[in-house]
């Protein structure tokens, strides 16, 4: 809540600075917009991973892109096997390219392996994942394909 309040105050200040600046190229207002956009993206990614750690599949499903929600219900999404238990997360960074974004998230996960009718838990591991997001109608959603490159996504130089 406090972060959103601070972001809301910084954005108008950034616009005021860009209006009074001698350089009229718009670079300052673009950077303010990008900072606000990345902050919003990180907040939504943090909400998704907090829900994943808490085992709240309903919230995860709500943050999923619309085509994913159209293909499966929240109950079906909850039944998707993960192969592990998520213990903690930390959003480390984000990059935006048009309507697509990648959020770097460090997660601590404990893998659970089925062994002849019973489960065995391995030691928790810290892993950094590239979490894929897409902006639709000005809102960031977690990609259905977890950010794997698709044929329709623009190629990077």
Report on the structure:
By secondary structure, the chain is α+β, with helices and mostly antiparallel strands. The protein has one domain (2-142): NTF2-like, domain 1 (Nuclear Transport Factor 2, Chain: A). 41% of the residues lie in helices and 32% in strands. It is built from five helices and five strands. Strands 1, 2, 3, 4 and 5 form a five-stranded antiparallel β-sheet that branches. Strand 1 (84-97) and strand 2 (100-115) form a beta hairpin. The longest helix is centred in the first third of the chain and has 28 residues, at 27-54. Mean pLDDT is 75; it is low at 1-33 and 147-157.
Question: Nutshell version of this structure?
Answer:
This protein is α+β, with helices and mostly antiparallel strands.
Describe the SSE topology.
Layout: H1 2-20, H2 27-54, H3 57-62, H4 66-71, H5 74-78, E1 84-97, E2 100-115, E3 118-121, E4 125-136, E5 139-142
Antiparallel strand pairs: 1-2, 2-3, 2-4, 4-5
Helix pairs in contact: 1-2
What is the CATH superfamily classification?
NTF2-like, domain 1
Instruction: Count every helix, treating DSSP H or I runs of 4 or more residues as helices.
Output: 5
**Domains, number:** 1
- In round numbers, the mean pLDDT is 75
Radius of gyration in whole Å, from Cα? 19 Å
The helix-strand sequence is HHHHHEEEEE
- CATH topology, by name, is Nuclear Transport Factor 2, Chain: A
User: Which structural class do the helices and strands define?
Assistant: alpha+beta
- Share of helix among residues? 40-55%
The CATH C-level class name: Alpha Beta
How much strand?
A: 25-35%
State the end-to-end CA separation.
38 Å
Per DSSP E runs of 2 or more residues, the count of β-strands stands at 5
**Could you describe the largest sheet, including whether it forms a barrel?**
5 strands, antiparallel
